[in-house]
Amino acid sequence: QAKRLGGSSFSFYDRSMDGDSRAQIELLAELRQAIERDALQLYFQPKIDARSGQITAAEALLRWNHPSRGVISPAVFIPIAERFGLMRDLGNWVIKAACLQARSWREQGLRMRLAINLSAQQMRQADIVERISTALQENRIQPSLLTCEITESVAMEDTHATQETFRALGDLGVHLSIDDFGTGYSSLAYLRQLPAKELKIDRSFVAEIDTNSSALTMVDAILRLAHALNLRVVAEGVERESQQKWLVKLGCDELQGYLYARPMSSEALLMWAHGEQGGTAPEFRASLFGE
Ligand code: C2E
Ligand code: MG
Ligand code: MG
Ligand code: MG
Fold this sequence. Notes:
49% helix, 14 helices, binds magnesium ion, 291 residues, single chain, binds ligand C2E, 18% strand, Diguanylate cyclase (GGDEF)-like protein
């Protein structure tokens, strides 16, 4: 039973298991079924170029529409999958589904990068790079068109497996992005060593950039540091025009957030992107960027 439920490190008879854990295990069983039955869905949120307003990439975000509980947030079920050894199956499903979607968009004339998120467990997964490489090949996607987002705290883990995956993904030609940056206290020297191409400023700084001068100072410092290291910078969680104004002024490269688009279905994204890149785009940009 223990083996079926989780990875090698998890014991079903863990003493610390409480009522809460039992609820988690119930959810876990349902999640396993959802993977098997293909009942999960990827949503996509665009990243947009801060200068042109064009879509540059779509970030895949996992959605689970539970039959009785409704949509459950990945912030809830991903930690459970991580804890009980289901992240591997879940993550592999995401890799396949995202690459398949990227191919379909390309066939429909939409060109942009694809971004996926990788968890702590996935970074320790022995065959993760092989999985990604295979999914890219099967869908004839150049590795350089894929971005893998890894949170700063996971990127900082100096376990051999994590750092090895980092290096191997870099070697494959996939772009690496440091997600939720600014909360993990990584050192300058350390950041310089990572083969990353992109840095995403954590939403907590963006949230206060227009109201709190120390948040503004942080964002300014992060941008200078990142640009000195030749990293592109994405601001996540942009919700207001006043935030956008500051980010553009400070030289942020890309923007992402509800101000532009919420995560949406693949069909909706296709329509959104065609709308943006087609006739309505200039007006959209004029209103957002004051062109
Ligand atoms: P993340 O990668 O940092 O993704 C950004 C989160 O912020 C997403 O939440 C997104 O819906 C939300 N967001 C985007 N714009 C705004 C905004 O303007 N305002 C606010 N308040 N929120 C915004 P979501 O989809 O619930 O995902 C939460 C986290 O779960 C992600 O954070 C990521 O770490 C993880 N995650 C999601 N999908 C996957 C996946 O397929 N694989 C892995 N390993 N992790 C995933
Ligand atoms: Mg992300
Ligand atoms: Mg993030
Ligand atoms: Mg986050």
